[in-house]
Structures are given as C-alpha cells and as structure tokens.
Predict the structure.
Amino acid sequence: MKFTKMHGIGNDYIYVNGIQESIADPSQFAINYSDRHKGIGSDGLVIILPSDICDFRMQMFNADGSESEMCGNASRCIGKFVYDKGLTTKTDISLETLAGTKYLKLHLGSDGKVEKVTVDMGEPILNGLDIPTTFDTKSVINIPVKISQEIEEHITCVSMGNPHAVIFKESIDNLDLTKIGPIFENASIFPRRTNTEFIQLISSDLIKMRVWERGSGETMACGTGACASVVACVLNGFTNRQCTVELLGGNLYIDWNEKDNHVYMTGEASTVFEGEIT
C-alpha cells in the first residue's frame, strides 16, 4: 500500500489515497503506524475518499485510533495531495467531513504545485451543549471551572466541528502539557473529550498558542484550534477578527469574517516523503 507523509506547519499525518487503496482496520492502522519509534510517525491517519456530495471526502483517525470529525491542517494537505497528484485540476475544492462540508481555495507556488491553502471552516459553534460541554448556556465565555483538585481555570469553549477549550496564560513556554493536557482532555465537563489551547496574547493581531489534542497529545499545530482560539480571543475582547496565530510548527492566518460569520484559515501544506507498506 502506498502512503504519503505530509504536514501542515508541523501537524503531520499519514495520507492514503482511499480511491485506490483499502485499509481493513484504519483505527488499528493509525495506532500502529503513528508510533514515532516503531511506525512511520505521525499525529494520525487521513484517508482521502470519493464523495457523493463533494469533490472528495476526508476520514481521519488520531494517533490513539479514535476517529475525529475534522482537522484544519489535514484539510489543507488534502488540497495539496489531490491537486499535486492530478486527482483534480480545480483550485476551488469542496471536502466532505464529519463536521460538514469545507471549502478549500488552493494557492499555487512558482513550481505549479500547491503552496498554501485557505479553508472556509464554517461558522463557530458557541452553544454549550452543542460544543459539547455540560454547560447548558448559549455560550461558554471566560467561565471559571475546577478541572481537578489542583487545577482551576477560566475557559472559553468553541467548536469548529470538534470541541475546544481555550485558556489564556501570561506565558505558555514552560507549561507542562504532558501533565495538564490529559486532565483537561478527559475532564467530565467535556462529554466527547476536548482539545485544549493555551494562549499567550502578544498584540491585537498576534497570539502564541500551544495545543493538547485529544487522542494525539501535544502537536506542533492545530488548525481548528487556531480558529477556535481567535474566536475565543474576539469573544473576550482581546484581538481583532483578523489575527496571526504563532504555533510551534509555524504560523496560521485566521479571519473570523464579520459579514458571513465564517472562519477562514490560511496556511502552508507540505509533502515530507512517500513510501510503501508491505
């Protein structure tokens, strides 16, 4: 079976052309081959499939084998994959995901290959139960919660098709995410677990972010998390609607458009290597 290793500013996945290849147990495949010592090494598995309603369909699994609704960085890489490999000649693509249809605009480089992709991530979900959380409120903005005996934080929750809890800190460089990340991820107030973003405010149009992703741990970047974080910043009055998010793997540009309420994410997509699994 052929595969391609790709990353969106460090958020790396194994990509498989599901139109031509078949994986009997993708969940177990993700567990086995995401291992960075005994496998290919990745944050998970992405399968590109045909769709009855869009140009392509995306199926993705985290490194722990759990299926995820959506990944912004992975969707950008899908755009690069299908265009660079000749599966489409279109530079405007619709993508079916478990979080609904996403629209990709491909930006080509001087070599004729995809360099950057803008993804229409749709409208943020702010209702507490729909995110989902256990808060029966129209929004969860700067609410104090006791996550454990030792941890109490103010959180702002947003769903971009998958759940996010955003926490603002004075500094994020020295946070021990391996210790606190799983506590947030599995807290009882998040029925389907949560991704957790730790944000340091730099200016009205720049923030720094570290992320603990459910099922994968700390990753170099998270597209939906960057989108959710900018939404949370705006809701708390911290930043403009157009904001650069500085992550460990690079930068994403986020625009929460006031006219249509959609969140647009622009960032790079890169191919690392290709190979075959026997």
